[in-house]
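Changelog excerpt

This revision adds worked examples to the README so contributors can see how folded entries look when concatenated. The first example is reproduced verbatim below.
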Amino acid sequence: MRRASLYATTLLVVLLIWQLQAMRIGKPDFFPFPIDVAGTLVELLTQVGTYEIILHSFGRLVISIAAATGVGVVIGIVAGFNDTFATLMRPIVTSLRTLPVASLIVIILIIYGHARSLYVITFLMIFPIVFEASKQGVLNVETSIRRALAMEAVQPYKKLFMVHLPLAFPYIKTGFLQSIGLGFKVLVMAEFIAQSPISIGNALYRGRINFQYDHVFAWTIILIVLVTLVEAGINQLRSEPH
């Protein structure tokens, strides 16, 4: 109850600041009032096209995350078992984690064009997280367990699937969940820059170039709600016992 009250208070303060700022600027076409954005938001939520846009963006996100998770887990596990391979992968992973997102988006757009770039960009942002989580999951298997496995006459693939993967799963799960929120934000940014059709990023872009700033604010609110729901789901899954 107390948390809900704090959230409500924060929301009211934000709305008040927004209202005062809109009154100070005095140009609703460029900085709309909260009531105007609320009307546009209701209008958008009653249109089928809005949900089509959301589903298209989520579809791209799911495909990108599935690919990045599959590749990241496999390569991360190999790196966890092989120091030489881990050393070879380190410059690639470090570069992907430190490269500015905007620069990466522009480079990938040049290389792959608009059709495939969204998937590649999101993949490259998510891959390092899953890779590191999978590698750490293997490396953090207790030494006593490693020694016991070395003494057992068990085929390597059975050791992998029956022991190493189950023990590494909490790390992989955490990396996977962390990648969802980041992937969604990066995807929308890429959609905006690439002007991808039927996407949240494109809806924001069209609102900007058409001077429909009430639509920009409304879509921003929708995006905030979506990310909040995704992160709430992530926190719920993360809190579940492994």
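The second example, added in the same revision:
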Amino acid sequence: MTQVNTSENYLPLTETTVFILLSLLPGAKHGYAIMKEVQALSNNRIMLSTGTLYGALKRLLEQTWIQQVADPIPNETERSRKAYALTELGKYILNAEVKRLNALVTLAQHQIAGAQI
């Protein structure tokens, strides 16, 4: 039997993956900008090491949730930087995770209200 790849095959996402995808939602960023955006979005709770970030980026590239693009910010050094952007599949997966989390929160709120904590 052939398994169909749907968003449910990839969910739940790790918190780090969610924050990386969220950081790319407004537009392409290079690695350091992703690290800073994840830190800001998480209120300084998640501080990615370069190893963690680039390992995650490699996996996300392989899954085609992100793609490498031209760096949107001019680089004043001669050193080239890799920049990354969400693909349509990446946006779809992120949206599916947000829907999953919303359903979980709704269920929890109903359970808490019913228990009258």
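Reviewer comment on example two: The longest strand covers residues 66-69. The chain has a mean pLDDT of 91.
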